[in-house]
Design brief:
Elements lengths: L6 E4 L23 H17 L3 E4 L17 E3 L2 E3 L11 H11 L3 E3 L11 E4 L2 E6 L7 H9 L3 E5 L12 E3 L5 E3 L6 H10 L4 E2 L2 H4 L7 E2 L3 E5 L3 H9 L3 E5 L2 H4 L10 E2 L8
Parallel strand pairs: 1-2, 4-5, 7-8, 10-11, 13-14
Antiparallel strand pairs: 1-15, 3-4, 6-7, 9-10, 12-13
Length: 271
């Protein structure tokens, strides 16, 4: 297995909090340790650097506690950046902040026509784009994704509100292999996944419930929540090297390693 060097975008959780509830993970009455969230995020960032990846950062904006979840800020493939439109008004102001970063970085930008929450619901898997819908990204957005990026788009229907974005239910391990939780998808989507990825790794509900599938792979190394022990063992059995990180504070808002990480594919160097 060969590791691919990656260029990643992250946002420090300077203003992280759980002040509202827009998914089942969020409980505004539960305490959040913002300083711990920053330390855990820094561990994730350092893990990427230690693996040889390039990490760029967008400046956090006061009043946007979920901006740390950079994966939702856009979809970037072949130097093209699809900006986002959030479903929930609490996150709406993140969209122009990320769009401005893409513009300053020199990406060719496309504006969304429908609700589209970026790489949270759009995952490049080999020659296909897997596109989630059911809770956040609108199904109508999938047609625009295909027109912008020129990859066949495969709709994935999510059915469990705990796994509200595709990247909480499925991770792309390399161009040929994915890991996913079958129960998070409709019967038809499960059938499509079996057809596309007959050698996929199936996660258990226990690992999905600690956001174990919200992972980042470079084709060899898989960075995933440390609590997802069974999934890590399955991945090692397949020959991947796993690196567990603890993002328990950020999980209180429904986020893990992938949520904090936006892949920047073949873009120009940021200014």
């Amino acid at each position: 297995m060969d590791a691919t060097s990656q260029r990643l975008l992250m946002c420090r959780p300077t203003y992280f909090a759980v002040d509202y509830a827009i998914n089942p993970w969020m409980d505004p009455s539960a305490p959040v340790d913002a300083a711990l969230a920053v330390r855990q995020w820094e561990q994730l960032r350092q893990t990427y650097l230690d693996l040889g990846h390039t990490v760029e950062e967008i400046t956090p904006v006061p009043g946007l506690p979920d901006m740390v979840f950079a994966a939702n800020g856009g979809t970037v493939i072949d130097g093209r950046a699809m900006a986002v439109q959030f479903r929930d008004p609490q996150r709406a102001d993140e969209a122009p902040a990320y769009r401005a970063w893409f513009e300053a970085a020199g990406f060719e930008i496309y504006d969304p026509k429908h609700v589209n929450e970026g790489e949270g619901d759009v995952l490049l898997a080999g020659d296909h784009l897997l596109a989630g819908t059911g809770f956040r990204t609108a199904h109508a957005a999938h047609a625009q994704l295909q027109e912008v990026f020129g990859y066949p788009v495969i709709t994935m229907q999510l059915v469990d509100p705990r796994f509200y974005h595709l990247d909480t239910a499925l991770t792309v391990l390399d161009e040929r292999t994915v890991a996913y939780l079958p129960e998070a998808f409709s019967p038809g989507s499960q059938a499509v996944l079996r057809r596309l990825f007959p050698d996929a790794v199936h996660a258990t509900m226990a690992d999905a419930e600690v956001l174990g599938l919200n992972a980042v792979s470079d084709g060899r190394h898989v960075v995933l929540p440390a609590q997802a022990t069974d999934l890590a063992a399955k991945l090692r059995d397949r020959g991947y090297e796993t690196i567990g990180v603890d993002l328990s504070e950020l999980r209180k808002a429904g986020g893990g390693p992938k949520c904090c990480t936006l892949r920047l594919r073949q873009g120009k160097a940021s200014k």
